[in-house]
Amino acid sequence: MTSAPLAARLTIPSGPLFFPVTAYGPDGSVDLDAYRTHVRRGVEAGAAAVFACCGTGEFHALTPEEFERCVRAAVEATEGRVPVVAGAGYGTALAVRYARLAEAAGADGLLAMPPYLVVAGQEGLLRHYREVAAATSLPVVVYQRDNAVFTPETVVELARTDGIIGLKDGLGDLDLMQRIISAVRMEVPGDFLYFNGLPTAEQTQLAYRALGVTLYSSAVFCFALELALAFHQALGNGDERTVEKLLDGFFRPFVELRDQGRGYAVALVKAGVRLRGLDVGEVRPPLHEPTEDHVKQLAELIERGYALLEEAK
Asked: Any signal peptide, and if so, which residues (predicted)?
């Protein structure tokens, strides 16, 4: 257990960044026991941080009360071994409310999601994230994607804002990312953090590493812990052979399967957790479950991925 600031704890991650799914019981309510088990297994397997109630955790589907209970459960399950970062989003007033609930539940930081629905200008976006950052003492990582896309100048201002420590990119525009990184480096020298936040980030992490972005989210870690961990270690050790083998034999086919259905970045991951023996329930609407055939393909793909690890021994 460490009391080091969040930025320092994330700078050189010892393992994948874990984005757990949120578990639901047969009646559709949050199953905190299954959720704690899911989080605990990830931490014990080597996760460097837990990002609770974020995209993979169906932040959009949780009430404020459920959100607070889940964040608190994640904090309890980690027992201080790794930091817990909680999602916060919607309009400014609600994002502030979620941020304060996360702080009350014991979270170590926030992942600030895009605002709900509206496509705002840079001035409004900057004001939104500054108000979220000012609402608590928790450090904030801003999530760039969908309707929250920033110019390099705006990210410079975000980096100058007290409490904002990093940018997670879910857009995938590498030219824009290079310009953002360059602008912040020149205007705000320091240790501003960058994350690859694309779905199944392993698939694009080689490209992000070329920009100097070493942090990435891993939804695969939810259900194929050893595969995600082996990829993370191979990437860090410069083991190109293992990286390429896992990309070609598991991650690329998984991405192709994931792209067969809308919302599969969450629903297929949750199906994977169930296939691996932990009943975390189904996704909530408006997401839907994968087809029976797609779940069968996922099971075969997981088996193939673990066979690759055996071959590498």
From this structure: none
Q: How confident is the model at residue 159 (pLDDT cuts 50, 70, 90)?
A: very high
Model confidence band, residue 4 (pLDDT cutoffs 50, 70, 90): low
pLDDT beyond 60 at 10: yes
In degrees to the nearest 10, what's the CA dihedral of 262, 265, 266, 272?
120
Alpha carbon 90 to chain centroid distance?
17
Residue of 168, 208, 264, 270 with catalytic role: 168
SS (H, E, C) the chain: CCCCCHHHHHHCCCCCEECCCCCECCCCCECHHHHHHHHHHHHHHCCCEEEECCCCCCHHHCCHHHHHHHHHHHHHHHCCCCCEEEEECCCHHHHHHHHHHHHHCCCCEEEECCCCCCCCCHHHHHHHHHHHHHHCCCCEEEEEECCECCCHHHHHHHHCCCCEEEEEECCCCHHHHHHHHHHHHHHCCCCCEEEECCCCHHHHHHHHHHCCCCEEEECHHHCCHHHHHHHHHHHHHCCHHHHHHHHHHHHHHHHHHHCCCCCHHHHHHHHHHHHCCCCCCCCCCCCCCCCHHHHHHHHHHHHHHHHHHHHHC
Catalytic residue among 24, 35, 129, 143: 143
At 50, is the pLDDT very low, low, confident or very high (cuts 50, 70, 90)?
very high
What is the mean predicted confidence (pLDDT) over 50-78? 98
> Which residues make Cβ contacts (< 8 Å) with residue 284, sequence separation at least 6?
24, 28, 58, 61
Q: What is the pLDDT of residues 174-203, one digit of tens each?
A: 999 999 999 999 999 889 999 999 999 999
In the chain, the amino acid numbered 271 is A
